[in-house]
Amino acid sequence: MREFTFTIEYEYGVDPVMNVFIDNPNSVARSLDGFVTKDQFWRIERISGSVDVLDQIKRVRFDDGTCGESVTQRDCDATRYHDVLERRNGELVLYTYLEDIQDCESIHTLAGKHLPPGLVFETHRQASQHSWRVLMRSDTHVGVLYDEITARLRDGLSFRMGHLRDADGWQRDSLASLTLPAEQRTALSAAVEGGYYETPRKTTLDDLAATLDIPRSTFSYRLRQAEIQLAHRYVTDNKRNQWF
């Protein structure tokens, strides 16, 4: 397998889905997509964010009059099906299926036009960036795909090349996400980067709190809440995956 990675940058007002992420830069979406035929594709997308963000994303996705797929001036004409696979505090998992696709110039359809059947897409959305990893059996015509994408991008979108190489493993966590409030993520990141979880510890709660310029009690509380979330998610996911 080969992989082709790239990122598309969006200006505000160009795409209704990306507008939500630009307005809420701490929100993240990861998806796993499959291109079935030239007129069908599916996507499973996990979005992490506030209740308001998740409601906005669901509203846009379920609006069949809104196209959130096309990267050119031509919107996609297709029959759309959406369903909520999971909804809990801070997370929304959506299933999307498009069929009877006509006149659509999305990454899926452009890739399906030039690359061999059996394509798999992994994507990551945050702020103004939508990053893609395309897994393919052969990259013989990937240059043609690159030329068409870069030549046909609609106004307000820009393309940044990643790499083209042998596929570097399977991204097991492509749909895994854990939503933490920004202050808890900051506390957890500071603890990891500072060596708090090393043996022996390289820092203390007092030092970390001082670095973030917050009271020790506040830092300790945020870190503890983040750890609780991680522990609960680990146990829950293990129980869900016992049938594998």
TrEMBL record:
The lineage of its organism: Archaea, Methanobacteriati, Methanobacteriota, Stenosarchaea group, Halobacteria. The keyword Lipoprotein does not apply. It comes from Halocatena marina. Residues 183-230 form the HTH bat-type domain. Residues 3-170 form the HVO-2928 N-terminal domain. Keywords: Transcription, Transcription regulation. It comes from the Archaea. This is Helix-turn-helix domain-containing protein. It holds the Pfam family HTH_10.
